[in-house]
Sequence to fold (199 residues):
Amino acid sequence: MNVVCLDMEGVLVPEIWIAFAEASGIPELKRTTRDEPDYDKLMTWRLGILKEHGLGLKEIQATIATIDPLPGAKEFLDKLRSETQVIILSDTFEQFAKPLMEKLGWPTIFCNTLEVGENGEITGYKMRCEKSKLTTVKALQSCGFDTIAAGDSFNDLGMIQASKAGFLFKSTQAIKADHPELPAFEEFDELLHAIEQAL
Fold:
């Protein structure tokens, strides 16, 4: 049995931190997992910037409320979910993801959790497990699933390379150049066709 594992940000929805960087006028927050392979380093740096500017969960959630899925993402997901099981594997946080999952028709998502103080300050975060995307793909495989994966960033490479079929989607030129062995697509219909061929 197959299960498709998809990244969320940059694949199905715009990058939350980039949207918040633009809304808050703090360009440093545009840095994402496309730029920084070490997620812990990236998040620690982000939380430091939020603290410095006195920003918390409420402000980020206000930006998220204005974000819509990428054009064609819901239709792609609906079609894919009619053909096979789909799980979104994301390094985002449940406090960020919920309104976006509603706009995508409530697909299953495995993600992480923020630690938030009473005043709304984000004080830390709890990762679901180490190398969460790769670990989850391996766990699914240990349960008898064949996995097919797609993503755009450094933190997606593990699950893509470990899967029966794996694809880069809307990725950077640098990541595509580093991994010419991975098929890379820019349009949802191309990705859907590639996944259907792999099922």
Observations:
- DSSP finds nine helices and seven strands in the chain.
